[in-house]
């Protein structure tokens, strides 16, 4: 019996979903086995093979029943671990996709369906936590996550309050990934798959649980062989992935969370995935997932966009649109997120440097790893990163990592032309778009200076004041007068111009303090300004 057909093939042509089997002998035997999970008197433990066989038989010949499918899916995880998880997810997905309106429990008993799914989520998470599996290929984990995401999308369509599948996603994050260049052991033919050794201990519930005692931490062994070392690395990356998720949840401005998530995802990827004429066999992200991110972006739900997109980083290793969405959201959330934005861009640049040609590949259906907008974003990141300073200061030395002068001059000239035509709003939006998509703090400073010059020249110094304050903060924070005296001088002159031309007395006093800073860098220039 092929598990892959259980959610697709009808019971009978004239009765696709069959009939309710809740009082049939097969179901009673199945339920009796499942009940061993909660009955104190059941000391022998549950027979998961019996559960799977009975459930598969019912789904094939008797009834398309969501609870029965849930029993089958959990049984497959218990017996065949990751392979079983993949097959069980397909059955759940196909059953919901093909038979939602007429399957059992009937729609009028929606609470029964929700209860079946909640049981499946809880038991699948528990089973995955007990899995001790060899590392699997990133493509296999990505395929599993894709099916799980498709289930999530279907449930959101059918349920008024969608069920959170995050517990299963979280459990999957602990599965070790196979290093590129190594192959997985061949799976045994159907019916001859080796059983996990040792088998999972039967779950028992007593009337009064003994208090749980946390065992003392186990000191990791020092690796002595290549295999030992690989195990330590896999374990470390799992822990890193989990820690990154916690950091992001607690503080979405924390750059370490974004950096560590990407290090954990890509560290073991050392070669391009297998491809033919640029096409890989990696499943594409579902259209519903793509649309969800687009909707969040279009509605400027930046925090929600980050939360949703970051969850996809480990699910879709080579879907670069996700990282562009994160980057744009971080920029729009303001200066507190600047370090996080730079971390995302730097890790992307590092991956592209290691694996040239990766961005040119496509998923199995021809969907590009990076759409046209993402490719432009990646090209910009790569070009800036290639010339980035290796100094510890976050603002590079002169001439490194800054936007090309010709390109910037053209954009600034367009903005000035718009301002002269009394289209100041369009001019500001043009420069603001560049400011929001900067890779480095230095690039942001240069675009901010251009914006301030235009606002001051258009007699809208009041609009420039917040940016002038930020410019002063950047000069101080990055000690710009030491790393780039020329840029520091130009920046201070713009700030002085804005402050000195304002009617506010406090700002005029600030202008005098700025003039003193200018005098330290260029006394002659300070004298000229004081006479103007």
What would your notes on this structure say?
This protein is an all-alpha fold and 532 residues long. The protein folds into 3 domains: 133 residues, no CATH class; 154 residues, no CATH class; 127 residues. The chain is 60% helix and 1% strand. It contains 21 helices and 2 strands. The protein has a two-stranded antiparallel ribbon with strand order 1-2. β1 and β2 form a beta hairpin. α10 packs antiparallel against α11, α11 packs antiparallel against α12 and α17 runs antiparallel to α19. The radius of gyration is 30 Å and the shape is elongated. It starts with 24 loop residues before the first helix and ends with a helix.
Radius of gyration computed on alpha carbons: 30 Å
Strand order of the largest sheet: 1-2
- What do the pLDDT scores average to? 82
Distance from N terminus to C terminus (CA atoms, Å) equals 90 Å
Shape estimate: elongated
Class per helix and strand makeup: mainly alpha
* Number of extended strands: 2
Following the backbone from N to C, one meets helices and strands in this order, namely HHHHHHHHEEHHHHHHHHHHHHH
Please work out how many helical segments DSSP would assign.
21
Strand-residue proportion: under 5%
């Amino acid at each position: 019996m092929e598990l892959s057909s259980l959610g697709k093939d009808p019971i009978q042509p004239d009765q696709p979903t069959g009939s309710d089997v809740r009082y049939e002998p097969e179901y009673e035997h199945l339920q009796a086995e499942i009940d061993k999970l909660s009955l104190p008197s059941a000391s022998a433990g549950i027979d998961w093979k019996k559960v799977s066989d009975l459930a598969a038989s019912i789904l094939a010949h008797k009834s398309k029943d969501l609870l029965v499918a849930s029993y089958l899916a959990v049984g497959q995880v218990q017996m065949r671990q990751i392979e079983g998880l993949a097959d069980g997810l397909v059955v759940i997905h196909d059953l919901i996709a093909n038979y939602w309106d007429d399957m059992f429990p009937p729609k009028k008993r929606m609470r029964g369906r929700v209860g079946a799914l909640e049981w499946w989520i809880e038991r699948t998470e528990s089973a995955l936590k007990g899995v001790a599996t060899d590392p699997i290929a990133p493509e296999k984990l990505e395929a599993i996550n894709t099916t799980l995401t498709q289930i999530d999308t279907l449930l959101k369509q059918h349920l008024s309050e969608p069920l959170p599948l995050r517990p299963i996603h979280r459990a999957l994050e602990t599965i070790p990934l196979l290093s590129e260049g190594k192959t997985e052991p061949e799976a045994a033919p159907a019916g001859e798959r080796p059983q996990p050794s040792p088998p999972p201990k039967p779950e028992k519930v007593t009337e009064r649980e003994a208090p749980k005692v946390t065992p003392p931490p186990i000191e990791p062994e020092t690796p002595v062989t290549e295999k030992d070392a690989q195990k330590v690395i896999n374990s470390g990356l799992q822990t890193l992935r989990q820690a990154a998720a916690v950091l992001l949840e607690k503080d979405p401005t924390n750059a370490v969370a974004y950096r560590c998530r990407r290090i954990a995802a890509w560290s073991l990827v050392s070669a391009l995935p297998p491809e033919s004429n640029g096409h890989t066999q990696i499943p594409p992200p579902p259209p519903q997932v793509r649309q969800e991110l687009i909707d969040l972006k279009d509605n400027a739900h930046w925090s929600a966009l980050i939360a949703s997109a970051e969850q996809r980083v480990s699910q879709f290793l080579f879907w670069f649109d996700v990282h562009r969405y994160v980057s744009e959201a971080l920029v729009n959330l303001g200066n507190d997120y600047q370090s996080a934005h730079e971390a995302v861009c730097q890790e992307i640049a590092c991956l592209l440097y290691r694996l040239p040609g990766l961005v040119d590949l496509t998923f199995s259906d021809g969907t590009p790893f990076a759409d046209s907008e993402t490719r432009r974003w990646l090209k910009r990141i790569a070009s800036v990163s290639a010339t980035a300073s290796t100094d510890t200061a976050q603002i590079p030395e002169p001439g490194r990592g800054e936007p090309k002068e010709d390109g910037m001059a053209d954009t600034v000239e367009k903005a000035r032309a718009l301002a002269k035509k009394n289209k100041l709003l369009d001019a500001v939006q043009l420069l603001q778009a560049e400011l929001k998509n900067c890779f480095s703090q230095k690039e942001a400073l240069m675009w901010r200076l251009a914006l301030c010059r235009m606002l001051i020249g258009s007699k809208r110094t009041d609009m420039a004041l917040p940016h002038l304050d930020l410019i002063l903060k950047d000069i101080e924070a990055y000690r710009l007068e030491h790393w780039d005296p020329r840029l520091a001088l130009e920046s201070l002159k713009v700030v002085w111009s804005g402050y000195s031309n304002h009617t506010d007395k406090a700002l005029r006093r600030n202008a005098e303090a700025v003039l003193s800073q200018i005098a330290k860098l260029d006394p002659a220039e300070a004298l000229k300004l004081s006479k103007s």
